[in-house]
Design a protein that fits this description.
It contains two helices and two strands, in the order H-E-E-H. The protein is an alpha+beta fold. The protein has a domain of 44 residues. Strand 1 and strand 2 form a beta hairpin.
């Protein structure tokens, strides 16, 4: 849905050539020669997936922005590294 709105905004933002005195406007390029729409990955894009919560068998749908998902992944990696480095040490 967001990509469709983005594509529409790109099409609407194309400059329209101004008509000159006595000259006709150039013909529009054929539809096949139109520039392709490139999907842009933004930090505000929503990513949804099913996640089973601890202690439950029923998965629930969770949605995060791309930035939140990347931050969550980095935090999980830091937590795993911290736990793995601390298990071999003897506490005094």
């Amino acid at each position: 849905m967001i990509s469709a709105i983005f594509a529409l905004a790109m099409l609407m933002s194309e400059p329209v050539p101004a008509a000159t005195d006595g000259a006709t406007a150039p013909a529009a390029p054929p539809a096949a020669a139109a520039t392709p729409v490139v999907k842009v990955k933004r930090d505000s894009d929503m990513i949804c997936h099913s996640e089973t919560m601890l202690g439950s068998r029923i998965p629930s749908k969770v949605c995060y922005t791309r930035a939140e998902q990347e931050e969550r992944t980095q935090q999980d990696k830091r937590n795993l590294d911290h736990m793995q480095s601390g298990f071999g040490k003897i506490a005094n």
